[in-house]
Design goal:
Layout: H1 24-34, H2 56-82, H3 85-97, H4 101-107, E1 108-109, H5 123-131, H6 133-143, H7 146-149, E2 156-164, E3 168-175, E4 178-183, E5 189-193, E6 196-201, E7 207-212, E8 215-223, E9 229-237, E10 244-247, E11 251-259, E12 265-268, E13 271-275, E14 280-288, E15 293-299, E16 304-306, E17 310-311, E18 318-321, H8 328-348, H9 352-360, H10 369-383, E19 387-401, E20 406-419, E21 428-441, E22 446-454
Parallel strand pairs: 1-3, 4-10, 11-18
Antiparallel strand pairs: 2-3, 4-7, 5-6, 5-8, 8-9, 11-14, 12-13, 12-15, 15-16, 15-17, 19-20, 20-21, 21-22
Helix pairs in contact: 8-9, 8-10
């Protein structure tokens, strides 16, 4: 402490100045009075005044303010997590994986003013998404890769646009629609997309369609004629920077047909195109579709015989169609086997096995009158002690189909009779001509002899 009168330095606890002896506090009072100051200074701090208690109203206000601050903090943290970039992208991916158009349409936007995002407009995309698991896997993988997910050249991409509450970036799915130009190969062809007519094609005027959603589409081109000419194709169209060209060709073909049915009627795609003459015919030019079918038919009294349909292609111009029921070779085979067994009856005698073989080649078996005729003939030759053997050789002269299973056959039968040495008769050969009816047995798949009448 310094003396206010002489300015000498004194110890803090001293009451008088060490130099001039003046009381330190008194000098201070006098100096203060001399300078006109009337403020009294006290070295002792006055005792604290008791505080009045906080009102209930103030407590409620403070509590409400603190609660509001806490609520705002918690809400912010929750919204920050909900609107985080990864969280928003995960929700967009989930809307794709659900494969529900009602969910996806809520997330989609487009920048093409001519395209409106609706459940109906994105139906082709949903069809492709639902039918193609591999595409869905690639799409999800692409969406999780930031470089690919934000690539605006893709059919579907993610972009950051605007914000939520002015605080959090907003992410959305964007669809790029496509524009189509459709061509065919015949002027006047009617073009349809997903069974709805889109326009008429001409070489100098392609059918334009769009904007449409990317996805799976069925295209068809058709020309109205006696034989329906139509080509249908399915194509997956995802993205295109330019107009996407779709080509639906319509083709024609010229071909020849031969068959074992000489006057069969020829059908192309169930439309009659002509008849065969002497088992052959030339047809066309005719429309050719991807699935064109060629078939022959022959109407008989009982029913219509039809060949198996075969595919017609532009790489083949000659078709040989057999009905595969019976032909002259199968008829000859039946006669050879039958008369061989009859000859055995004469040369080697009757056995159950030979009789069974003969029955199997006759319509109605042993109930057929020919069965008894063959047995009687064998007995007659066997009763002649000079006859050694009899050989039969049948040769078909004419073969004609009468009904779906019935055939008219004219055949010659050479009967060679041999006698024992020293017999009174010489060996001889006799030729007989028969008019016969043979029937195709569909169960046994062979021709059987029904009747045989000797022609004079």
């Amino acid at each position: 402490m310094y003396c206010k009168k002489c300015g000498s330095k004194n110890e803090h606890k001293g009451k008088f100045c060490n130099k001039c002896g003046v009381p330190l506090t008194q000098v201070q009072v006098e100096r203060e009075q001399e300078s006109g100051e009337i403020t009294k200074k006290q070295s002792v701090t006055p005792p604290p005044q008791p505080k009045s208690p906080m009102s209930k109203r103030n407590k409620l206000i403070i509590s409400a303010v603190l609660s509001l601050i806490l609520l705002l903090f918690i809400s912010y943290r929750m919204l920050d997590n909900y609107y985080a970039e990864d969280a928003q992208i995960d929700r967009l991916i989930a809307s794709i994986q659900n494969r529900e158009s009602s969910d996806l349409v809520k997330q989609l936007v487009t920048y093409d003013p001519s395209f409106e995002v609706t459940e109906e407009s994105i139906a082709p995309y949903m069809d492709y998404l639902n039918d193609n698991n591999e595409y869905l896997s690639r799409l999800v993988e692409r969406m999780r890769n930031r470089n690919d997910a934000f690539n605006s050249s893709n059919e579907l991409y993610i972009e950051q646009e605007g914000s939520h509450f002015g605080l959090f970036d907003r992410y959305q799915l964007v669809m790029n629609p496509v524009y189509l130009a459709i061509e065919s190969s015949i002027d006047g062809a009617v073009i349809a997309i997903n069974d709805e007519e889109a326009g008429i094609y001409y070489a100098d005027d392609l059918v334009s369609v769009g904007p449409v959603a990317p996805g799976r589409y069925q295209f068809s081109a058709a020309v109205d004629s006696d034989i329906p000419l139509e080509n249908v194709k399915t194509e997956d169209i995802l993205s295109s920077s330019d107009t996407y060209l779709v080509t639906i060709p319509l083709r024609s073909i010229l071909f020849s047909v031969t068959s074992d049915i000489e006057d069969a009627t020829v059908y192309l795609d169930d439309v009659e195109i002509g008849k065969l003459s002497d088992g052959e015919g030339q047809f066309g030019p005719l429309p050719l579709n991807d699935n064109s079918l060629l078939q022959l038919k022959k109407a008989y009294e009982s029913e219509t015989l039809a060949s198996e349909p075969i595919h017609v292609t532009e790489y083949q111009d000659d078709y040989h169609i057999l009905f595969e029921l019976a032909n002259v070779e199968s008829a000859q085979s039946t006669l050879n086997a039958l008369y061989r067994d009859v000859g055995y009856l004469i040369s080697w005698g009757e056995t159950d096995s030979r009789l069974s073989d003969i029955q199997a080649l006759l319509v109605d078996g042993r109930d057929n009158s020919l069965y008894q005729t063959f047995n009687n003939t064998a007995d007659r030759y066997n009763d002649d002690e000079e006859v050694q053997s009899v050989n039969y050789t049948a040769s078909i002269q004419e073969f004609e189909q009468l009904d779906i299973y019935d055939y008219a056959v004219i055949y010659e039968l050479d009967v060679e009779t041999r006698h024992y040495y020293g017999a009174s008769q010489d060996d001889y050969t006799q030729t007989l001509t028969f008019e016969a009816i043979m029937v195709y047995d569909d169960e046994d798949q062979i021709l059987k002899l029904k009747s045989a009448d000797l022609i004079d």
